[in-house]
């Protein structure tokens, strides 16, 4: 027997969306509202009644729309051609099917009066604990309608002691982690850049259900908006109610939907973890490598980028010499950064030449072919920097195509970097062809280019397009991104093997909207290893190490002026995709010897770092004087452990660091990966210790992290 209330729920059809460890439950009955009931630990069909009975169900509209019953946050608002501002969506049908990469549930809804159709999609990615959701709206009317609000997702959350973890930033301080208790009112994470969207807040967050965020305990929902344009994520907390909505930022972006046209919102991807923030991160990393990063399962080369070594002073001799020196250290790829192009206006600083993607003959008389020949001679690969969405008022491109630039008719151009940087209008197919051509021409002429760093150092400044019709100027933020993605898709279809890095004045393009077209991202223009520990901690919450460009740079550091031992700088960079960004010829012989050994050690641990499961052990944000993390293979037969001394006082307490993710019953041999002096490893080197001791009791690092900015990197291998 069941109560009237639960019986009425049970009459609705329940649709269970499962991943290995999570379930999402939607109830939908034709002619009624679709309802979001449950998102949490995995349940079976037979447990559905149990979640209703335990009071865990929300019975909230799965996609609330504006107009009737209007108070409160809504996911969508439109105005019909006759001026009516309401929607009233009822379920038409539900389809569940398997696609190549996931199990898909589509809830088709239809307005009761207007010919307006909305499909809400949920996709459980196979073999991962990620479910993504988005909506597709189609206008079946004879006249256009206007979309004023169009969230991808609207998720109810159990109200309790809810905390939010998010990642805020600024240039050279991207992905800094913030944690706060959510109280009544709204907390908004948004972006209005138009071109890049992670220099400030990242469109990713975690929300706990049961108190202060913990690394390996607690119930946490993690979500990210897979979009590279402007966005709006609202935590709407009202006493007993808590909803999260996430989608593109509608401000200045109302969208006219023509008859027969379909508008698709970006994916919002989420996971639910009962093992704290660590569980959220590992789920996202696996999903990223399997589905969302271009070539996510391929190991990445150790590279030297020329930027901090020579800045704009690129020339044949310096490039040749950098390649020679880096090859001697064991490096695998050389990337020539900004400064290599422009003839009428050679690129000597940030104020000219973007768009003139011809090699500067004066600086590089041997051309790109000469550089590739030199790379070949040193047995390393060659890569190059481009910023193809941009131009400068001082450039041949702008002289030829002034109409290709974003601008507001009748008003002077706003300019960015160097006082001259301007943005190309990627809504225009001709401009899309040009941007595609930047890559295509380089690759056609020099098929041996192995890597491209695709940069963007400007926001969308002037909100106007000479291509978009007058009544569709408000589409610019959205259509720019669509144009960019279309262009990247074309590039990827033709050049699947080319390794591409997404960069935007450092870490401005670390999002799952663009990462499907890139192999990796540049984390930040700040290469100070101490600050990197914080930033990489933040970025590791949602993005995997294989994609996280992490470079050893000069002493003293060019951004902060800090001096850090080379070992510390390597130990930090080796926890991501290792690279260098300095002038190798300026290194002492001792430093070169150290770098050689560290690079060779990284080659040995590369698969563990780039494809292993991350366990964050001691957070730098907890101010314990030490930060520590490790990567473990899924088989738990190998791991890499890092610990960094973050502050330094005499007689300071250094607490024991407990490892995680190993097998308690296995024995492990520890190897010092980066002894400061050859033949003088730290005291753990060669020791064999059980997984149980390493995880339950830990390592006492007090004798190892003794000096200021000391650090340790250990390889941990199962002894069979
Ligand atoms: C941006 C990038 C840097 C470098 C410069 C070149 O700032 O983030 O790494 O490529 O541009 O101008």
Question: Could you explain how this protein is built, in words?
Answer:
The chain has 720 residues and is of the alpha+beta class. It folds into three domains: 10-292, Distorted Sandwich (Beta-galactosidase, Chain A, domain 5), CATH 2.70.98.60; 303-611, TIM Barrel (Alpha-Beta Barrel); 615-718, Golgi alpha-mannosidase II (Immunoglobulin-like, Sandwich), CATH 2.60.40. The protein contains 13 helices and 36 strands. The strands form six sheets. Strands 6, 7, 8, 9, 11, 12, 14, 15, 19 and 20 form a ten-stranded antiparallel sheet that branches. An eight-stranded parallel barrel has the order 21-22-23-26-27-28-29-30, surrounded by six helices. Strands 5, 10, 13, 16, 17 and 18 form a six-stranded antiparallel sheet that branches. Helix 8 runs parallel beside helix 9 and helix 10 (529-539) packs parallel to helix 11. The longest helix has 23 residues, at 589-611. The radius of gyration is 27 Å and the shape is globular. The N and C termini lie far apart (57 Å).
């Amino acid at each position: 027997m069941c109560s009237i209330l639960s019986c009425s729920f049970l009459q609705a059809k329940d649709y269970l969306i499962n991943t290995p460890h999570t379930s999402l439950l939607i109830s939908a009955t034709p002619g009624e509202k679709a309802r979001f009931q449950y998102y949490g630990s995995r349940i079976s069909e037979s447990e559905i009644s149990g979640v209703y009975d335990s009071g865990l169900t929300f019975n909230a509209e799965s996609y609330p729309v504006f107009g009737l019953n209007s108070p409160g946050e809504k996911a969508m608002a439109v105005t019909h051609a006759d001026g009516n501002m309401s929607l009233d969506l009822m379920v038409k049908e539900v389809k569940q099917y398997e696609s190549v990469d996931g199990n898909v549930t589509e809830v088709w809804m239809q307005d009761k009066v207007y010919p307006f159709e909305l499909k809400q999609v949920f996709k459980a990615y196979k073999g991962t604990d990620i479910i993504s959701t988005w909506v597709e709206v189609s206008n079946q009317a004879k006249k256009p309608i206007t979309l004023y609000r169009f969230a991808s997702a609207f998720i109810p959350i159990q109200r309790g002691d809810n905390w939010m973890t998010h990642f805020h930033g600024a240039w050279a301080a991207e992905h800094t982690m913030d944690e706060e208790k959510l109280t009544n009112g709204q907390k908004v994470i948004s972006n209005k850049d138009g071109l890049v969207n992670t220099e400030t807040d990242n469109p990713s967050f975690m929300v706990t259900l049961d108190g202060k965020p913990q690394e390996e305990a607690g119930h946490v929902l993690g979500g990210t908006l897979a979009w590279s344009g402007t966005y709006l994520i609202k935590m709407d907390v009202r006493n007993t109610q808590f909803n999260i909505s996430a989608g593109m930022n509608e401000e200045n972006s109302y969208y006219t939907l023509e008859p027969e046209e379909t508008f698709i919102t970006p994916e919002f991807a989420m996971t639910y973890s009962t093992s704290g923030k660590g569980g959220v991160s590992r789920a996202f990393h696996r999903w990223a490598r399997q589905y969302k990063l271009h070539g996510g399962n391929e190991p990445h080369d150790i590279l030297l980028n020329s930027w901090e070594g020579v800045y704009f002073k690129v020339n044949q001799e310096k490039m040749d010499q950098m390649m020679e020196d880096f090859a001697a250290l064991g490096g695998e790829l050389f990337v020539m950064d900004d400064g290599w192009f422009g003839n009428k206006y050679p690129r000597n600083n940030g104020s000219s030449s973007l768009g003139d993607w011809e090699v500067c003959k004066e600086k590089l008389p041997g051309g790109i072919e000469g550089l590739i020949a030199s790379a070949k001679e040193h047995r390393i690969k060659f890569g190059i920097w481009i910023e193809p969405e941009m131009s400068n008022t001082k450039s041949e491109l702008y002289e030829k195509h002034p109409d290709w630039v974003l601008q507001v008719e009748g008003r002077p151009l706003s300019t960015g970097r160097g006082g001259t940087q301007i943005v190309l209008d990627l809504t225009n197919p001709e401009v899309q062809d040009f941007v595609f051509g930047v890559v295509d021409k380089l690759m056609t002429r020099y098929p041996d280019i192995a890597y491209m760093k695709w940069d963007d150092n400007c926001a969308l400044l002037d909100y106007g397009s000479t291509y978009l019709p007058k009544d569709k100027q408000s589409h610019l933020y959205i259509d720019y991104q669509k144009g960019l993605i279309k262009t990247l898709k074309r590039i990827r279809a033709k050049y699947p093997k080319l390794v591409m890095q997404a960069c935007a004045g450092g870490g401005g393009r670390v999002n799952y909207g663009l990462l499907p077209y890139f192999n990796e991202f540049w984390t930040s223009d700040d290469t100070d290893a101490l600050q990197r520990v914080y930033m990489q901690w933040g970025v590791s919450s949602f993005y995997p190490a294989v994609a996280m460009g992490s470079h050893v740079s000069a002493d003293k550091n060019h951004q902060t002026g800090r001096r850090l031992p080379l070992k510390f700088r390597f130990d930090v960079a080796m926890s991501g995709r290792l690279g260098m960004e300095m002038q190798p010829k300026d290194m002492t012989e001792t430093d070169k010897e150290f770098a050689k050994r560290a690079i060779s050690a990284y080659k040995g641990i590369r698969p563990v770092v780039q494809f292993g499961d991350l366990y964050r052990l001691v957070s730098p944000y907890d101010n314990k004087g030490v930060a520590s993390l490790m990567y473990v293979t899924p088989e738990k037969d190998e791991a890499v452990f890092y610990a960094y001394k973050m502050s330094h006082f005499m007689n300071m307490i250094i607490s024991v660091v407990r490892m995680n993710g190993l097998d308690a019953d296995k024995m492990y041999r520890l190897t010092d990966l980066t002894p400061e002096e050859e033949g003088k490893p730290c005291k753990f080197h060669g020791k064999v210790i059980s997984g149980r001791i390493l995880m339950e009791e830990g390592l006492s690092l007090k004798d190892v992290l003794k000096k200021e900015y000391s650090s340790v990197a250990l390889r941990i291998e199962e002894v069979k």
